[in-house]
Amino acid sequence: MHLSRYPRLHFAHLPTPLEPMTRLSEHLGGPNLWIKRDDCTGLSSGGNKTRKLEFLMADAVEKKADTIITQGATQSNHARQTTAIAAKLGMPCHVLLEDRTGYEDPAYVYNGNVLLDQLHGSTISKRPADTDMNAAMEELAQQLRDDGSNPYIIPGGGSNEIGALGYVNAAVELTTQANDQSLRIDHLVHATGSSGTQAGLVLGMEATNSGIPVYGVGVRAPRQKQEEMVFGLAQRTAEFMGLNPDIVKRERVVANSDYVGDGYGLPTNAMVEAVKMMAQYEGILLDPVYSGKGFSGLIDLIRKGHFRKGENVVFLHTGGSISLFGYPDVFDLPGYI
Ligand SMILES: *Cc1c(COP(=O)(O)O)cnc(C)c1O
After folding, report:
1. Is 292 in the pocket of ligand 1 (CB under 6 A)?
2. Nearest to 53 by CA among 193, 203, 171, 165
3. What is the predicted pLDDT for the residue at 1?
4. Closest Cα to atom 1, ligand 1: which residue?
5. 319 lines ligand 1 (CB under 6 A)
6. Are 312 and 185 in contact (CB under 8 A)?
7. How many whole angstroms from 59 Cα to the centroid of ligand 1?
8. Which residues, given as ranges, of the chain have pLDDT below 70?
């Protein structure tokens, strides 16, 4: 497996640190907890989309694109990272934001990622929930083509065969770090949404025969649908890389969607507890939509005895803390005393 065969730009801060979470491990009293800091990839406050964008933007440049189009939810971290790299490459970027939550709080609609999208110079426009976002992007692309430009469409979350290469590479990176530290990783846990992160990780772990099981915690789709999305993309990415898609076994794709709560982007009590716990035991910021729910799943699994004492569990921090500023009221903070 030789990822240098694929066009790639280098702007992520890599490798991201792999750190022990000593105080949190002690507090929860379960396995040894580690954290892989993909919140520290460096692009406009970081996050997992940066790894995917290294391959996607290289493809855009190779195809001589002059404009970027992408989509996401209102507080999309993917959109924010895309707007930042588009700015660096001097390309106009148009972001279509789907109103999945119906929130009208000005903090949600204008602060956090939405503020940064605009600060990076992108245009944003809103679409109602359940819009066919791929069709909406294609429609905009056609208008731009009619005006003589050459737009490049990045799918939601950067999740296609090209974007997933970023997480195939992350699987190799993490395995190498673990080897260098003589750390036996028993489980890798992370939040899964548009599925490119998990698809790349599962494929990377299989292709390198590392044997590290990947456990996704869903933030939107029910289990069956989420697992099928991840499995399908992992197989397509394998094919794209010239590997036999059968190296990805269906049973290696696990996405537990028990922690979604009322829906995508809607807070849960367990998420609030998880975000506070990480902030107060490790000084690390999670986010309300992805990593907070992902970590709430990990906390619950620890409490249910899913992991053995002495096992090493790595939580992949996929970023997103900027969206905390879109949810200022959900944390019930004490204020000045
Ligand atoms: C997009 C995102 C995820 C999910 O990654 P996918 O590749 O879309 O499954 C997890 N955490 C954060 C913070 C994200 O922005």
Report:
1. no
2. 165
3. 80
4. 157
5. yes
6. yes
7. 21
8. none
**Which residue has its alpha carbon closest to ligand 1 atom 8?**
194
Torsion angle of the four alpha carbons 70, 191, 317, 19, in this order, in degrees rounded to the nearest 10? -150
Residue 158 Cα to ligand 1 midpoint, Å, equals 10
pLDDT tens digit string along 15-47?
999 999 999 999 999 999 999 999 999 999 999
Active site residue 76: yes
pTM for this one? 0.98
Pick from 218, 216, 212: which is nearest to 187 by CA? 212
* pLDDT of 28: 98
Q: Alpha carbon of 235 to those of 54, 204, 229, 257, 316: distances in Å? A: 21, 11, 10, 21, 22
The pLDDT of residue 108: 97
Q: Is 157 in the pocket of ligand 1 (CB under 6 A)?
A: yes
Give the model's pLDDT for residue 104: 95
Question: Catalytic: which of 25, 45, 76, 323?
Answer: 76
The answer, yes or no, to whether any atom of ligand 1 lies below 6 A from the CB of 288, is: no
